[in-house]
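Task card 7
Instruction: Convert sequence to structure tokens.
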Amino acid sequence: MKKRTLLICFLIVSCFSYSQIYFSSFPEEKQLIGRNLSTNKGLIKISGEVNNGPYYDIDYDNWRSGEPNNGPPAENVGAMFGNNSILQGQWNDRSTNNTNPSYVEYDLEATSLGDFIYLGQYNGHSYFKNPNNLSWEEAKLEAESSGAYLSSHQTTEENNAVSAMGDFIGWIGLYQDTSAPNYNEPEGGWKWVSSSDVTSNYSDVYVELYKNSSLLEVYNQPLSFSNDQASFEINIEINSELSRYSVKTYATNNGEASLIKQADDIVCGDVFIVQGQSNAEAPSYNGS
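Output:
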């Protein structure tokens, strides 16, 4: 007879980012939650942090196909293709040891800025080319010494407009923060050097718990901020039974609630490992 092994297991989710909201704990789709033998219940843990201040995370991406790939490592800064390429406006992650010219952004309307080459204007900001082939860090310092910064495109529209101004591949203000809560290779932790203009006012996080597709309960946690940071933790007990649970997590920003993340088909029960031949029997039992 054939020997067989049955193993049922589950994984804990890694950090997930939604602009200014980071999840440090959240269930997976189709996750099995282990039950507490004394209560016959399992625990769904939802926790993370909310930032109400300026934020630098990218709200969209325009990576070239296959990028970012961190290859060869470490590639943790971004360059953009200009209008002389079929890849216009697309990004590529590169090493800080590479050298390129750069796109420079100035917060006011101006047609000259030091020795930089004027490119154009968009939404009240002015854009320039630094023609010097520099590392990303050197280009960043040169831009800042002129009262500007490496071009940071908060919207797809801005990205398209600036890429149409230049005919070169150059550094932009895109970098990977390896200390960010959502950092992972190759796609996590990417930020702009300049913060978004969007004003946020998150007030609470709440979770809807569904059992077999029917709303069972709502768990709400008001946010208490210190230095624009607030943490949240919502623990939900579910029964160990033949039921499918789902959770939908919302955040209220400026009075408007938005669905942030959800997970379906969560069940609570035990993990069994049966090892041996196909006619194997358990040597002992506990309970019914």
